[in-house]
Predict the structure.
Amino acid sequence: MASDTRDVVVDAAKFAVPRATVSAAGDQSAPGAAIDTQTIGQVTVQDPVMTARQVSVHYGAKKAIADVNIDIGRNSVIAFIGPSGCGKSTFLRCLNRMNDTIAAARVSGTITLDGKDIYDRSEDVVQLRARVGMVFQHPNPFPKSIFENIAYGPRIHGLAPTRADLDEIVQTSLRKAGLWDEVKDRLDQPGTGLSGGQQQRLCIARAIAVDPEVILMDEPCSALDPVATARVEDLIDELRQNYAIVIVTHNMQQAARVSQRTAYFHLGNVIEVGSTNQMFTNPRHKLTEDYITGRFG
Amino acid sequence: MNNTNNATPFETRGQRTQRLVAASLKRRYRAELRFRTYGIVAVTLGLLFVVVLFSTIISKGIGAFKQAYVTLDVTYSAADIAPDGKLAPADLAQGDYEAVVKAALRNRFSDVTERDEKRKLYGLLSNSADTILRDRVVKNPQLIGTTERVALLASDRVDLVVKGRISQNTPEADRTVSDLEFGWIQALLAEHRLKEQFNTGLFTHGDSREPEQAGILGALVGSMLTLLVTVCLSLPIGVAAAVYLEEFAVRNRYTDFIEVNINNLAAVPSIVFGLLGLAVFIQFFGLPRSAPIVGGLVLTLMTLPTIIIASRAALKAVPPAIRQAAFGMGASPVQMVTHHVLPLAMPGILTGAIIGMARALGESAPLLMIGMVAFIADVPRALSDSATVLPVQIYLWSSSSEQAFVERTSGAIIVLLIFLLLMNALAMILRNRFERRW
Ligand SMILES: Nc1ncnc2c1ncn2[C@@H]1O[C@H](COP(=O)(O)OP(=O)(O)OP(=O)(O)O)[C@@H](O)[C@H]1O
Ligand SMILES: [Mg+2]
């Protein structure tokens, strides 16, 4: 029994201004009917590391996500699933303000990290990204040596005062990412010379080298083969001991395997949030059920 | 719906496809052959032009790297050099070395007695012979009273005869070298006293009115100083502008306007930049005329658009994933640029810069406008000294009436081409060496 999550169907209504929906409950997927955009399920958790309230993102005039409310729990994995273009990546990028780098993007609402608004003027985006790391869909190591890839973050954030500290950080990060044994003899060789799976683990090692609190992963296995995928999934499961992890995935089995909570996104709205177990065995929303069972998306 | 369509009893579907494709294939092959032929013809023509250009310039100019010298037994008579017996360097420099040279020539051709003929005889040597002897004596006063063999620079006409550019077969009235002089030259040649040597003077002298003494050092140094100014200004400014436009500037009407104007600037004829330089740098800011500093400023204006455009292309070629990775690690925009994007774009930027510099090195029109076209014998020592540059030197020599300058012109062109080829080779090496696959 997940005691750290509360069932908050009613709570969700507190954040979301209920909008008039023409559809009656039960036929949300009827053609032409507006979707009930109110999130159902367990939006909040006890002692969340991050919270998002009423988060909307516009790209120019186009609304990409609307009124997203969700909590990210400590030491657990939350999976974002949903059809293509529904705004999973967009929301993920809000969590470490990567949307700042997209000129057209406008973010509204509140997102907190340990209770502090990350979009506050006094918040420094550099500090935020040191605390909320990111792993991208395609492995993107720097075209530098393996060592330099890992050392880059600690170096720019001043986390390693001495060379010995830096060596230590590089080694532990690679160990945590399960890559140490494969690369310990060639730390000075380019990171781009590794295989795709190794590169992705290198990117994970790079992200954990600055010891973040949250790691965001946007489809981290979509470019990997099943063996490499399995390794990354094992890694995510281990990392859960120390980090909060948010993973976007199109792979239902993967979401089921690695995550404790799942959020279903649909056309810019979070339709349902809940424990992964419940979502996959007993989805409450028709859209969630259709998507999970493969009737949609 | 295509399954049954068009299959006649006489021809199966497969046969029909084969027939139609075969017909179209023939057409395609013909078109391809035609295209290949055009390509080969174009490339061959291009190569042919290059070969013709290079071979004419080399055959015309290779002689400029050799120069005729006359070896004479020179007697440093004390009566001419130090008539009053004072041996201080300042006194020695006052000596009558022309008399020494003349004596040496008379000594070799003792049968020449007539005044007119003597003058012709002295004309075999370049007028720099006495300064060469003076320098030797001032450096080593012990030479006074002794006789030594010295190779002295021959005059340009003798040089032309030795190189076969003046032939005795043409009627005497039509050539600048008389039969008498031909006789002397042949005599000297027979004794191996008249020889061609590598023309070091070409690389160690500035310009001169005497073709045999004229060198390209002044123009070469002028070119280097000018390019130094150009590099030091256009590379940092160009890269900074490109980085700002590519990585920081928000895309809006103003940046679009700037972009269009940079592209337009790249197409502005170079002479216009010369006029601008004349009006702004010389007339308004009062910088000296004919100076490498002004030349460099003008060429900076000319090269900037090239460097900006090349740098922006190089920056654009850096994959966005690298920027995302850097931002994701918490790098600031400046760190993202200086740590990751700029190093990756550097080979492309440098290639563009070198090509821009090569263009600047070969440029003459804008420099004519700011007065770098004067006759300047001294090698420039500072950015504000009067100077000229290689292409302008070529232009100056090519418009000279003396036959001996024709060869020098081509010789200078060869030197310029060598520098341009070296720069292009450097650009190519940089490109290949640092080319990255990501
Ligand atoms: N940089 C951008 N500029 C403009 N519109 C964008 C941009 N990025 C995303 N969008 C739009 O925002 C919406 C959400 O995109 P997003 O990338 O978040 O979807 P997603 O759920 O991650 O999809 P996928 O599963 O295919 O990755 C889409 O309609 C997309 O077209
Ligand atoms: Mg996405």
